[in-house]
C-alpha cells in the first residue's frame, strides 16, 4: 500500500473537481488526522480547503468541528467514519412510505443510497446536469423500478406522485441551498399539492453565517449556469435528518456543528 504524505493528500483534495462533497470531507478528515497539525496550521489548512471548495458544506462542517476540538486528530477519524456510513440514509429509508411513487432530481447521493434499499418504491427521475442517467443506472442495478421524466412531463408526474424528495447542499434556519433543478421541482410540487421532502445529509446543517458565505461565493457570479438553487422555505414541507422526518422548522434545520469565526477570515491569522 502506497502511503501519501498528508500535505500531498490535502493538495490532492484541494485540486479535486467534480467529487462528491462527502467524499471530499472524508479524504480531508483522513489527511488532517494524519497531519496532526498545531492549532495555527490547522486554521490555515481549514481556510484553504474551504476556499478551494466553498460549495461543499461538509467541508465547512468538518473544519468547524476540528477547529474547536481538544484533540482534532482523533475527532477527524471519528467524523470520517460518519461520512463513510451516513445515518441519514437509514433515516430516509425508514421514513419513506411503503409502495410510494417518488420524484427526485439529478443524482442525489444520499437519496440515491436510500432508494437503493427500497425495491417496493417507484422512482421518477427528473434530470439536472445530466445526472439522472447515473441515478437510473444505479437504481436498475438494485432492482428498483425507475423511469426518467422529461421536462414536458414534469407537471403530470409530480401531480401523480406521492412525494418529491430533494437533497440539501447546505441548510440552516431560514435558508436552503440545493442542487440546481430543486427549486423548479419543489415549485411544481407546491402547485400540484404534492409534499416536498428535503433530505439533509450529514454535514449540511450549518450555522447561518456559513450558509450565507457559501451562497455569496457560489451564487454571486453564477449567471444561468449555476449548480445551486436558493430554495424558498415555503416550498419545503418535511426535513429528513439523522433524527428522522420532521416538519420544516428552525428546530429541524438547526446546525449540528459549532461556529468557528476564523473560517470566515482571510489573510494572516
Please, could you describe this protein's structure?
By secondary structure, the chain is of the alpha/beta class. The protein folds into two domains: 6-84, Four Helix Bundle (Hemerythrin (Met), subunit A), CATH 1.20.120; 87-247, Translation initiation factor eif-2b, domain 2 (Rossmann fold). The chain is built from eleven helices and ten strands. It has helices spanning 6-15, 21-35, 39-52, 57-67, 72-84, 87-95, 109-115, 132-141, 154-160, 182-192, 208-219, and strands at residues 101-105, 122-126, 145-149, 163-167, 170-172, 175-179, 196-199, 228-231, 238-241, 244-247. It has a seven-stranded mixed sheet, sandwiched between helices. The two termini are 37 Å apart. The mean pLDDT is 90.
Q: What is the CATH topology classification name of the largest domain?
A: Rossmann fold
The CATH class of the largest domain turns out to be Alpha Beta
Low-confidence region ranges: none
Major beta sheet summary:
7 strands, mixed
CATH superfamily of the largest domain: Translation initiation factor eif-2b, domain 2
Contiguous helical run count: 11
Task: Label the overall shape.
Answer: globular
Radius of gyration: 19 Å
Average pLDDT level = 90
Please tell me the CATH architecture of the largest domain by its name: 3-Layer(aba) Sandwich
Number of domains: 2
Order of helices and strands: HHHHHHEHEHEHEEEHEHEEE
Number of DSSP strand runs: 10
Distance between the termini: 37 Å
Give me the secondary-structure category.
alpha/beta
Strand composition percent: 15-25%
Q: What is the helical fraction, as a range of percent?
A: 40-55%
Strand order of the largest sheet: 3-2-1-4-7-9-10
Amino acid at each position: 500500500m502506497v502511503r501519501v504524505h498528508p500535505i500531498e493528500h490535502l493538495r490532492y483534495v484541494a485540486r479535486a473537481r467534480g467529487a462528491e462533497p462527502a467524499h471530499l470531507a472524508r479524504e480531508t478528515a483522513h489527511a488532517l488526522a494524519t497531519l496532526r497539525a498545531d492549532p495555527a496550521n490547522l486554521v490555515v489548512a481549514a481556510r484553504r480547503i474551504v476556499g478551494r471548495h466553498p460549495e461543499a458544506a461538509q467541508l465547512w462542517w468538518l473544519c468547524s468541528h476540528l477547529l474547536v476540538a481538544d484533540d482534532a486528530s482523533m475527532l477527524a477519524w471519528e467524523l470520517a467514519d460518519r461520512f463513510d456510513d451516513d445515518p441519514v440514509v437509514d433515516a430516509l429509508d425508514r421514513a419513506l412510505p411503503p409502495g410510494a411513487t417518488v420524484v427526485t432530481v439529478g443524482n442525489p447521493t444520499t437519496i440515491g443510497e436510500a432508494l437503493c434499499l427500497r425495491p417496493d418504491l417507484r422512482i421518477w427521475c427528473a434530470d439536472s446536469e445530466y445526472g439522472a442517467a447515473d441515478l437510473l443506472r444505479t437504481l436498475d442495478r438494485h432492482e428498483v423500478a425507475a423511469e426518467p421524466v422529461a421536462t414536458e412531463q414534469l407537471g403530470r408526474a409530480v401531480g401523480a406522485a406521492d412525494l418529491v424528495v430533494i437533497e440539501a447542499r447546505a441548510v440552516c434556519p431560514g435558508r436552503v441551498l440545493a442542487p440546481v433543478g430543486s427549486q423548479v421541482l419543489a415549485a411544481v410540487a407546491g402547485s400540484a399539492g404534492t409534499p416536498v421532502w428535503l433530505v439533509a445529509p450529514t454535514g449540511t446543517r450549518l450555522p447561518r453565517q456559513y450558509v450565507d458565505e457559501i451562497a455569496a461565493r457560489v451564487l454571486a457570479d453564477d449567471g444561468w449556469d449555476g449548480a445551486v438553487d436558493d430554495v424558498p422555505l415555503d416550498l419545503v414541507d418535511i426535513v429528513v435528518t439523522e433524527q428522522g422526518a420532521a416538519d420544516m422548522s428552525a428546530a429541524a434545520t438547526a446546525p449540528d456543528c459549532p461556529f468557528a469565526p476564523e473560517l470566515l477570515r482571510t489573510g494572516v491569522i
